[in-house]
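Give me structure tokens for this 179-residue protein.
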Amino acid sequence: MAKRAKIRSEVVELSKGTPLYEEYLKQKKITDKAWNIFLKAQKEERVFGFKSFRVFIEIFWYSVIVLIFAVYFLVRSFYFDYENVGVKVVCGSVISIAVFKLYWLFQKFQDLSPIAYVFVSVITAFFIVMGIYLLTKRKELYVDKMNRNLMILGEKALVNSRPEKRSEMLEFIKQLFKK
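Here you go.
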């Protein structure tokens, strides 16, 4: 492109003072004005440093959906697959990646190095995993408390029932605990 620009400059220099040069200057003013309008419109169209709102939304929702699925599977793993640490590590890693992507989406490494963003996203993912663990643990404690209360209620109902109805009451209590 530099060679082409050099040749154009030479042609312009040689044509100075001609009617063609005057026409060139008029067209150059129009072109420069249009180019500036284009650059201004292009700059205004950018969203968080992305070339368009559509690109920004695409990356944002991809990251949010990945984050939601990772949190969902992490919660499920704490409830249904409590002993499997690998699932929790994978979910934590995916959460870390999604958080990193969201940090990157809004910051573009303007104030910190990329390594600092990785570190912050790992720490954030750790806090999210610990928060979910504590929430599920709290929920588990609540369920255990309810089961304990149900057991006490069943015991009292069994003790206070008439002797001929105790076998029926025992079957009813067994059915409650199967649910």
